[in-house]
Write a structure and sequence with these properties.
alpha/beta; Rossmann fold; Alpha-Beta Plaits; 2 domains; six-stranded mixed β-sheet; four-stranded antiparallel β-sheet; 13 strands; 30% strand; binds adenosine-5'-triphosphate; nucleotide-binding; ATP hydrolysis activity; ATP-binding; ABC_transporter_ATP-binding; ABC transporter related
Length: 324
């Protein structure tokens, strides 16, 4: 279980004006400014949950993750992960977590992937049987057999990300922190990585904390989202409930034969051509079933699809609403 209570973190940054004269002056007297990266951040995550931790650039996501991993110490507040304080019980804590930072690598650049894995086994002191079992499973699930003998520097981004995921899981951690795990991946690799994370959560019960700007990751993986903006937690809720709350309209696409002569109140046409009609519905005025009945009475309906707000649209609304 992860419990964060009133975590604050500030960074002190040296201010420097441009120009050689100012650079020289800064050698003798420096001015500093304080950045409040996290302000009173509190939340609880239960074992086996998969959380989407979202917010705009600079909101404080990576800082929170680094505190939870024990890399950064907060100014004050408490963080307990399975009863341990990450920055105080670092060795014991590290044995129980896996971390993937999409922009950084934990693999040794010039050595074959399998050698990096062996080094990780040594660092984490994973016993041979457990290592063999985990490696076999990960090689199969992530399709790594062709990659093990390749040096990391020769891997494509998607191949490296699959190896990074495997590296973070060789010691069977109970909690996995993922910071933008699908950044820069092509569509096929993204789907493979998402499927793997989902499987890990359902089959091994691994707790997953995922930060991403890719709302398709959120849509595919998480049921609960935590929204952070300007260092403060602004919202903590179920993705489905949020979507329902923000879904003030529905989009219905009709494929049909014939002539649509009239629409009813609450329907707005966004596109109409060659037997295809896309309408936006205001559900308070016109329900989906009313719209279907109304159009079916005029034309032969061949196909219908209904969609609500996407996670992407919802997050755009949220960011606007909270002015972050
Ligand atoms: N080491 C550091 N030194 C100084 N300021 C920092 C440091 N790390 C983070 N910050 C500042 O803290 C704030 C939060 O940064 P953080 O990296 O946590 O944001 P983020 O939500 O992960 O952003 P992104 O989505 O762009 O990765 C930012 O204003 C950032 O400039």
């Amino acid at each position: 279980m992860i419990i964060l209570k009133n975590i604050n973190k500030t960074f002190r940054i040296a201010k420097r004006k441009s120009g050689f004269g100012q650079a020289f002056k800064a050698l003798f007297s420096r001015e500093y400014e304080t950045v409040h990266a996290l302000s009173d951040v509190s939340f609880t995550i239960n074992d086996g949950e998969m959380i989407g931790y979202i917010g705009p650039n600079g909101a404080g996501k990576s800082t929170t993750l680094k505190i939870m991993c024990g890399v950064l110490t907060p100014d004050n507040g408490s963080c307990k992960i399975d009863g341990r304080t990450p920055w105080q019980d670092r060795i014991e804590h590290t044995k129980n977590i896996g971390v993937v930072f999409g922009q950084r690598s934990q693999l040794w650049w010039d050595v074959p992937v399998c050698d990096s894995f062996e080094l990780i086994r040594d660092i984490y002191k994973v016993n041979k049987t457990e290592y063999r079992h985990n490696l076999d499973e990960l090689v199969e699930l992530l399709d790594l057999s062709e990659l093990l003998k390749t040096p990391t520097r020769s891997l494509s981004l998607g191949q490296r990300m699959r190896c990074e995921l495997a590296a973070s899981l060789l010691h069977s951690p109970q909690t996995l922190f993922l910071d933008e795990p699908t950044i820069g991946l092509d569509a096929v690799s993204k789907i493979a990585v998402r499927q793997f994370i989902k499987k890990l959560n359902t089959e091994r019960g691994t707790t997953v904390i995922l930060t991403t700007h890719d709302m398709q990751d959120i849509e595919a993986l998480t049921e609960r989202i935590l929204l952070i903006g300007k260092g403060r937690i602004l919202l903590d809720g179920s993705l489905l409930e949020l979507k329902k709350h923000f879904s003030t309209r529905k989009t219905v696409v009709f494929e049909y034969n014939g002539e649509v002569s009239k629409l009813c109140d609450g329907m707005t046409v966004t596109e109409q051509k060659e037997g295809r009609l896309i309408i936006e519905l205001d559900p308070l005025i016109c329900s989906v079933s009313t719209a279907i009945a109304h159009l079916s009475s005029q034309v032969e309906v061949l196909d219908i699809s209904v969609s609500g707000i996407s996670a992407e649209e919802m997050v755009a609304v949220l960011y606007k609403e909270y002015r972050i």
